[in-house]
Amino acid sequence: MQARRSVLRGLVALLLGAVALPAAADPSRVDLPSIALGEAASLAKAKGEGCVEPTDVIRSDHMKFLLHQRDQTVIEGIRTQHHSLKECVQCHASVDDGGEYMPIDSEGQFCESCHDYASVSLDCFDCHATRPAKRGAVGDP
Amino acid sequence: MSDEHEQPDLERRHFIGQSAAVAAAAAVVPGTILHTIAKARALDEPVSSDIRWGMLIDTTQCVTGCDACVTACNDEHGLTGQGRPETDSQWIRKVHLKDKATGKVTTLPMLCQHCEHPPCVDVCPTGASFKRADGIVLVNMHTCIGCRYCMMACPYKARSFVHEALTDQVPDTPRGKGCVDSCNFCVHRVDASDQPQTACAEACAKEGHRAIVFGNLKDPNSEIARRAKLVPSRQIRPDLDLNTGVRYEGV
């Protein structure tokens, strides 16, 4: 009886060890995303300027800002650049080899890289433009 | 009681009446002066009902066969057609009218009339169709569910539905599949400028016809208000009592 119990305990310990070992060796099974910051944003970062909000605030609260701002913009006509989605795209869009902006929600680009990792659907760009206005076009802020 | 006592003192009444009128005028005049020197709205201030945007269209200057306004609107807002005119988005269109008795053909651009009492706003189940404080009637795409009740309600058939997924929208005009859209008086230009011009008015002036005038109906010094005071104009379907923001001359 005593021997069987101790054998049992040993087996359980072995099993737990077998399960724990791979987890200990590989803490996250999915790689953290590498974020393509975007052309203008990378330049700003190099200069030491930040985003409109601190990074950790943006990461957790960007939807709060956008949801609040959109009501103010559409209904009241308040169009400050501070929390404007158009400004996010303007700064964070990357440029391809040909000098054209790439859509910000395409694979590997700024928004998509985190949203794909977090598995949160991104439907802003069903309606909103994924690229800034043409480079050098009138109306660029 | 004698009749004399029953008579009110008309002299006194007259004097009080005049003083009240002068006092009222004195209260109003500073207000009107303030309006005419008001500066353009700052970007972080909400729009106010001190302004009402409207349009005056001179159909005698509108040329049959010209569609500069339509092309300009399509370019400004990225309303690319799918080659299916029945379901493509159409924010402004040319309408041709023929008087049966005389044979006179009149042509005019028809667009959202930006009514003061819009039927589209009345029927919208979600409140997406709304009238902004400055008179522009808009669709809030965040709230629109695409039921198209507003399209049915509009007497001018001004609204369009987006049937297909869109890419590469114009950054100033977000639009997407499943939502209704219509002429927004180039609201991105209106909010960005002191003396805004809609794309259609600009194109018409560029063509040399100058049939479309856009401006603030509440500003007595604006071109539109001065012209509307001089020239007879009318709303289309005035019997509906919508008090449209778009008026037409010569029709």
Summarize the structure.
The complex is a heterodimer of chains A (141) and B (251). Chain A has 141 residues and is mainly alpha-helical.
SSE topology sketch:
The complex is a heterodimer of chains A (141) and B (251).
Chain A: H1 2-25, H2 39-47, H3 55-76, H4 85-92, H5 110-118
Chain B: H1 3-6, H2 10-36, E1 53-58, H3 68-77, E2 92-98, E3 105-111, H4 119-123, E4 129-131, E5 137-139, H5 149-153, E6 160-161, E7 180-181, H6 187-190, H7 199-207, E8 212-216, H8 223-230, E9 246-249
Parallel strand pairs in B: 1-9
Antiparallel strand pairs in B: 1-8, 2-3, 4-5, 6-7
The H/E string of chain A reads HHHHH
Unreliable residue runs of chain A: 136-141
Based on DSSP secondary structure assignment, what is the total number of beta strands of chain B? 9
Give the count of helical stretches of chain A. Answer: 5
Measure the end-to-end span of chain B.
64 Å
Give the H and E element order of chain B: HHEHEEHEEHEEHHEHE
Q: What is the overall number of helices of chain B?
A: 8
Shape field of chain A:
elongated
The quaternary structure here is: heterodimer
The beta-strand count of chain A equals: 0
Backbone CA Rg of chain A: 23 Å
Reported for the largest beta sheet of chain B, the result is:
3 strands, mixed
Helix content of chain A: 40-55%
> Which percent bin holds the helix content of chain B?
25-40%
Instruction: Note the beta-strand portion of chain A.
Output: under 5%
Shape of chain B: globular
Structure commentary:
The complex is a heterodimer of chains A (141) and B (251). By secondary structure, chain A is mostly helical. Helix content of chain A is 51%, strand content 0%. Chain A contains five helices and no strands. Chain A has helices spanning 2-25, 39-47, 55-76, 85-92, 110-118. The longest helix of chain A is centred in the N-terminal third of the chain and has 24 residues, at 2-25. With 251 residues, chain B is α+β, with helices and mostly antiparallel strands. Chain B contains eight helices and nine strands. Chain B has helices at 3-6, 10-36, 68-77, 119-123, 149-153, 187-190, 199-207, 223-230; strands at 53-58, 92-98, 105-111, 129-131, 137-139, 160-161, 180-181, 212-216, 246-249. In chain B, the strands form four sheets. Chain B has a three-stranded mixed sheet. Chain B has a two-stranded antiparallel ribbon with strand order 2-3. In chain B, strands 4-5 form a two-stranded antiparallel sheet. In chain B, strand 2 and strand 3 (105-111) form a beta hairpin. The chains are: A mainly alpha (141), B alpha+beta (251). Chains A and B meet through helix 3 of A and loops of B.
